[in-house]
Amino acid sequence: MGELRLEELSARNIVAANTLSLKPGQEQYIAPVSYSVAASVINPATSWQRVVLLDGEVAGFIHGNFDPDSVHEEFRACIWRINVDANAQGRGVGKFAAEALAEEARGRGFDHITVIWEPGEEGPESFFHKIGFRDIGQTAYGEVIGSLQL
C-alpha cells in the first residue's frame, strides 16, 4: 500500500493538491481544491485542511469543518471535500484521510461526522458507504447527507 501520512495544506504543497487528477466521469462530482481553500478564508478557525502523502508525494486532499455552533447540524463536524488522485484511488488514501478527520473530530468531542455528496454512478457514494457512512437525509438540492458514528 505504501506509507501514508498527513501534512497541513501549505504554500509548499498547494500546487500539488490543486493538480490531483480524476478518473473519467468524476469531474462532475468535485470542485477544484481552490474552492475549499477560498471557503476557509470565511472562517479559518473552523477549517481543517490536510494533504495526504503516499510515499512522500501528494496523493490526496481533505478539507474538514469543525463548528459546534453551526445552525446546520450537517456542517458541525464534516468532510467538506475529499480528493484522491486517480492513480492513488483504491490504495487506501481516501480511507486514511477520512479516518484522520474522524480521529480529529473525536478529539474535539464530536460523536459523529457527516459528509454530503451528489448521487450518481461515478460519484463517491460507494466509497463513503464502504468506509461506514450511512445515509441520514438529503439537502434541499437532492444531495445525500451521510453520517459516520465515532
Enter the CATH topology name.
Aminopeptidase
Oligomeric state of the chains in view: single chain
Assess the beta-strand content as a share of residues.
25-35%
**What overall geometry do the principal axes of the alpha carbons give?**
globular
Which blocks of ≥5 consecutive residues have pLDDT under 50?
32-38
The biggest beta sheet, please? 7 strands, mixed
Gyration radius, in Å: 14 Å
The H/E string reads EHHEEEHEHEE
What's the CATH architecture?
3-Layer(aba) Sandwich
Strand order of the largest sheet: 1-2-3-4-5-7-6
Number of strands: 7
CATH superfamily: Gcn5-related N-acetyltransferase (GNAT)
The percent range for helix content is 10-25%
CATH class placement: Alpha Beta
Given the helix and strand composition, which structural class is it?
A: alpha+beta
Note down, in words, how this protein is organized.
The protein has four helices and seven strands, in the order E-H-H-E-E-E-H-E-H-E-E. The longest helix has 15 residues, at 93-107. The protein has a single domain (8-149), classed as 3-Layer(aba) Sandwich (Aminopeptidase). It is an alpha+beta fold. The protein has helices at residues 14-18, 33-42, 93-107, 125-130; strands spanning 4-8, 47-54, 57-66, 77-84, 112-117, 134-138, 144-149.
